Amino acid sequence: MVTLQGSTRFLCTPEEEEAWLKRSAEEIRKISLDTEIELLKPGSGRFTMDFCTLGMFIIDEIHFPPPKPPVKDVIGGAGAYAALGARLFVPHKKGHSVGWVVHVGTDFPEQVLDQIEAWGTDATFIDTPDRLTTRGWNKYGKNDHRVFKYLTPKIRVDHTVLSEQQLMAKSFHLICSPSRCIELVKGILEAREKLIAEGKTQLGNPENDRLWPMKPPIFVWEPVPDACVLSELPKFMEALKYVDVMSPNHEELASLFGEMGPDIFGASEIDRMEKQCNELLSRGLGKKPAAVVVRRGARGCYVAQNSRHVWFPAYHRPRDELTGKAKRRWKQKVVDPTGGGNAFLGGFCIGLLQVRPDRGRTQFEEGAIYGTVAASFAIEQIGIPELRQVGESGDERDIWNGDLAVRRVIAYEKRLKLSSRKTLPPLSGEELVRAAFYGPIKTKLLGHKAIRRGRIPADFDGKRQVPKD
Fold first, then answer.
1. Above 60 in pLDDT, residue 312?
2. Residue 424 dihedral angles phi and psi, to the nearest 5°
């Protein structure tokens, strides 16, 4: 038994105990999210939910390049992986602050139900006895390029099937076309206003404003690949007025502007991304605190804001990015990239809620750090990561793939050297409200360091603007 923090105790095998003791005592003392996420007690019907995804649950079969054999009956779907990404950073006893929806068909495996229930999330199970569970076919090729198709009819998730608690979430993950994105945002906001008017939530109570001052919620939009074509660009610009973050992958961003995603990562791709993201920011997202977050798989993610653009490398870095001893000691950690992008956005949303002025970075950059770590867990195996709870009843701690998600956040921050005030200045109160709109900071273009560049935009009043018809 190892005592790590106060009365928190972890029941471990001798091997696990030895592994824990090898870790830095300073890091272990930092590993706690209980004070960062404040919720009302569950059961009252009025607790605050951190995250809700409207992605679907799918049972996947995955095909890899030969000679690796295919795998079937794997938990999948944007909803499952987004919920996983958020759940990684929520303490065990607060798992209900992550919401999602699961449509259960007649062929729903019992072991899958057990896995989902072990997460302790606020999953809404909808029985559909007249159909099979939604199933998908995935095939991966060069540079993690994915081909996907449905094997059984799908059921989309919309705001009408969300519970009252889920409707009052702090952040939402949407994966859909531009027109459906607008429809969902309007539906969620109208449903929330109705709940507040009927007195079914404490979110409208001034005494409860300390729980969540950023109202209405944050909307993070992941566009579907089929919609990312040049002819749809005007619709994208309109949809961007309704959301706070848009997150395509690099191929989808290129396709949206009528281009092909390059096979080779380099400065030319970064220049192209900067130009395209700036157009989305200026014509679509406007002056409000917002970001375009481009997911680039093994190369990390590109966070474009009005204030600056920042590149974050992947947690599991490719061998060709390393040098010296690190390159010689490199081991392949990525087993299956399926769900990595969705898990990224689930973690990203939780990271958005963790921003602090003294960290010297915007809420979107904080989200990218959490998202990067979330993706690292999702891609280390086929399917979802292994979850174990250790500790005494009521004081459990979640161990995912033998590690703590927050420990990886600390390790990642240290690698990027983003925690030091010498790298980024702390945010003032005004800058925090305005998503840290301050001047350019130059660093190396490529490598393990982040890229920061940009200019202070026009004044922004800090109020959320929702378009009206």
1. yes
2. -130, 135
Structure tokens at 56: 């679907």
Query: In terms of DSSP bridges, do strands 135-140 and 98-104 run parallel, antiparallel, or are they unpaired?
Result: unpaired
- pLDDT tens across 250-274, in order? 999 999 999 876 555 666 778 888 8
The percent helix, strand, coil of the chain (3-state, each to 5) is 40, 20, 45
Q: Using one digit for the tens of pLDDT, what is the confidence trace for 271-299?
A: 888 899 999 998 888 777 899 999 998 88
- Contact between 84 and 346 under an 8 Å Cβ cutoff? The reply is yes
Q: Which helix (H) or strand (E) holds 187?
A: helix 178-197
End-to-end CA distance of the chain: 61
- pLDDT for 36 equals 32
CA distance 363 to 410: 17
The candidate with the shortest Cα–Cα distance to 62, out of 143, 175, 133, 146, is 146
Residue 114's contacts (CB-CB under 8 Å, 6 or more residues apart) are none
Looking up tokens 């007025």 gives: 241
Assigned token pair, 335: 């087993």
The token pair at 303 is 């966070």
| pTM, full prediction | 0.78
Q: Give me the mean pLDDT over the 181-210 stretch.
A: 75
DSSP state of 446: S
- Encode burial over 374-399: b for 16+ CB neighbours within 10 A, e otherwise: bbbbbbbeebbbebeebbeeeebbbb
Evaluate whether 306 touches 287 at the Cβ level (below 8 Å).
yes
**Among 451, 443, 423, 412, which Cα is nearest to 314's?**
412
- Candidates 90, 58, 89; CA nearest to 75 is 58
Strands 301-305 and 291-295: antiparallel
